[in-house]
Write a structure and sequence with these properties.
Blueprint: H1 2-13, E1 18-25, E2 28-36, E3 42-47, E4 56-62, E5 68-75, H2 84-88, E6 91-97, E7 104-108, E8 114-120, E9 125-130, E10 136-141, E11 147-151, E12 157-164, E13 175-176, E14 179-180, E15 183-190, E16 201-205, E17 211-217, E18 228-235, E19 241-245, E20 248-249, E21 256-261, E22 267-276, E23 279-290, E24 293-297, E25 303-308, E26 314-318, E27 324-329, E28 335-340, E29 343-349, E30 355-360, E31 364-370, E32 376-380, E33 386-391, E34 397-402, E35 405-408
Antiparallel strand pairs: 1-2, 2-3, 3-4, 4-5, 5-6, 6-7, 7-8, 8-9, 9-10, 10-11, 11-12, 12-15, 13-14, 15-16, 16-17, 17-18, 18-19, 18-20, 19-21, 21-22, 22-23, 23-24, 24-25, 25-26, 26-27, 27-28, 28-29, 29-30, 30-31, 31-32, 32-33, 33-34, 34-35
Length: about 425
């Protein structure tokens, strides 16, 4: 035991206090530097340290349990979007935890907006949530950790009950296709005065927990009987959906979507009845696979042939008329060119995968600029018209300046700085 402990200690001490992870293919390379503390926890992450326009630093702090209590990001000095204000006010998120360190009971974002959470210690699930607006939602769970009630701040609530077939009120169908129904979940919604304010919804399951039927109430147009509507799902011997009905009532004959698969679980065909004029027919679409080539055929016998490379990227698509579009990618997987019968659209990207330029036969040449957070801050079209964009500390768009229009967005507060609501 001492040997194992000592070896573990040595491994922890051997974690580099400063390391570089560089991902390179051909001529593309992304670099991120990492720093660790004595416990092996990541304390600093520097993205693209040698490219000032894209450099971003994130610092992490932990409590004694090892929970991450804060993450603070700021652009590097000289990076795109770097200002004295941004350096002094990084985008920071923090978390607070229960006394035993098990649950994140509080979250605070970069605008100092907080939410608090309560937990059911039996299952580790949230049982109460109070948002930045002070409104609280409370949940109740049964002995199996299943949600049984959601009580919202306005006094409305939703109640779920779980019944075995044979229990009073379960009303299970004996079988659905070749499947046996074993239990049902019943959902009811209530207004503040406890009156039902939505149709009752039931979901029937088999012993494997597979959903067999959804049942809901329709509109009562007679004033006598509330009609029921169903959607059924059936499965093959490998648990895949073999057919699913469209919604139907007790007076209807169900219409089915049917599915078949190959031995790898890939869908081979999908079919459903339909009418062409007054003539009933079956509309079928199918897919065939041959290595990296996939041929899809729709109900009108039109085909689409897709060829992928070994990385799973689409290299070409050919339609039923024989027209082909080809695609090219850079070393990091970004789409760099499409070619449709000689009509070529080209795209260029920065190291973080943001599109910085595009040349399109119809749109002309466009350029784009981003800050170190990856947010689009400006774009210029083929007529040299520029649009500028601004964001708040949560990355939400707050202002867009176009040549003939200025648009602004306000969140949480009105434009006069008074609270919403």
């Amino acid at each position: 035991m001492n040997t194992l402990y000592n070896l573990h200690t040595i491994l922890l001490l051997a974690v580099a206090a400063f390391s570089t992870n560089s991902h390179a293919v051909d001529t593309k390379a992304r670099t991120t530097n990492y720093e660790y503390n004595a416990q092996g926890q990541l304390t600093k992450e520097i993205r693209e340290p040698s490219v000032l326009s894209e450099c971003l630093v994130t610092d992490y702090v932990y409590d004694t349990f090892g929970n991450r209590t804060s993450a603070s990001s700021k652009v590097c000095a000289g990076a795109s979007g770097s200002t004295a204000a941004s350096a002094a006010n990084p985008r920071a998120n923090s978390s607070s935890f229960s006394a035993d360190g098990r649950f994140a009971t509080g979250l605070t974002n970069a605008l100092n907006q907080s939410e608090t959470r309560g937990f059911d210690g039996r299952f580790g699930v949230i049982n109460s949530l109070t948002g930045p607006n002070g409104l609280t939602t409370v949940w109740q769970m049964d002995e199996f950790g299943r949600k049984t009630q959601e009580l919202r701040a306005d006094g409305t609530k939703t109640v779920w009950s779980y019944l075995r077939c044979g229990d009073t009120g379960a009303n299970c169908p004996a079988t659905l296709g070749s499947h046996t129904v074993t239990w049902v979940m019943v959902e009811n919604s209530y207004a503040v005065n406890q009156s039902i304010n939505a149709p009752e919804r039931r979901q029937f399951y088999d012993q494997l927990g597979r959903l067999l039927r959804i049942q809901t109430e329709g509109f009562d147009t007679t004033g006598v009987v509330t009609p029921l509507w169903w959607q059924d799902t059936q499965y093959d011997e490998q648990g895949r959906v073999s057919r699913q009905s469209e919604w139907y009532s007790s007076t209807d004959t169900p219409v089915w979507q049917n599915y078949t698969y190959d031995v790898l679980g890939r869908m081979l065909s999908e079919s459903h009845p339909e009418k062409i004029g007054s003539t009933p027919t079956v509309a079928t679409s199918s897919t065939t696979y041959a290595g990296l080539t996939t041929v899809s055929r729709n109900a009108n016998n039109q085909t689409k042939t897709t060829v992928k490379n070994a990385l799973g990227q689409v290299q070409s698509v050919t339609d039923s008329l024989g027209s082909t579009i080809t695609y090219q990618y850079d070393a990091l997987g970004n789409l760099t060119q499409t070619n449709a019968a000689g009509s070529v659209t080209a795209m260029q990207y920065d190291l973080r995968g943001n599109k910085v330029a595009m040349q399109d036969p119809a749109m002309g040449s466009w350029t784009y600029a981003y800050n170190a957070y990856g947010e689009l801050v400006s774009q210029r079209d083929s007529l040299s018209q520029s649009t500028a964009l601004e964001y708040d500390s949560l990355g939400r768009l707050v202002k867009r300046v176009e040549p003939d229009l200025v648009s602004q967005w306000s969140y949480d507060l009105k434009f006069d700085a008074t609270p919403c609501g």
